[in-house]
Amino acid sequence: MVLIRSLTFLLFLTLTTMVMAPLFFLLKWFIPFKSLGRLGNLWGRINLEGLGLICGLKYRLHGFDKIPADNCIVMSKHSSAWETIALRGLLPPQTTWVIKRQLLWIPIFGWGMAAFDPIALDRKAGRQAIKKLLQDGRKWLDAGRWVVIFPEGTRVAPGERIKYNLGGAMLAEKTGYPVLPIAHNAGVFWSRRGVLKYPGVIDLVVGDPIATRGLKASEINHHVEQWIENTIQGLPGKRSS
Fold this sequence. Notes:
Layout lengths: L1 H26 L5 H23 L1 E6 L10 E4 L5 H9 L4 E6 L8 H6 L4 E3 L5 H16 L3 E4 L17 H9 L3 E6 L15 E7 L10 H17 L8
Helix pairs in contact: 1-2, 2-3, 5-6, 6-7
């Protein structure tokens, strides 16, 4: 039953993406970015609702009132595809994401992503990738955008831990914008590379914004990593039977 429901949701997600991604790309040239962002939020919320109805996988928000009125750098845990849908649906509409460049090559889906001016990085580019992150990140932050980064750089299974990349923290150091840390346990219910989505409730926790002025990138990264990983330890790490 879990497999059937998971495949049904995958079909639902594919259909909503096939319909809305070309629409995003076309409307980009005719409507303000904030209005386009609201449509992006709608896509995210539709799929969150679909996930709950089809798979019985819902979510619970903690500390959502801590999201500041002004834009900042969002640094989130990355353990599944769920957070890419959820953060698109739940964060303020004026978001720009840091992604790997290859995602833009995916037919239809890539068109939709391109509409939102992502900071698309070539992981093999080394210093050039960091330079692009800092330049584009500053540009979009100064334009009022929220910049969303997964500091681990890849999906990490529950219970595992890897070193956080410094890129997001370097952007915070150079620009002085605060960092909003986000933790969740989505990987417990939807694994990083798996098709199955198990029923349950994902906890998503928003932390207090971290002031970054006067701090070095290593210090910012340490604060973010410690808060996210410590918070995750307090969330359910197993599915209820």
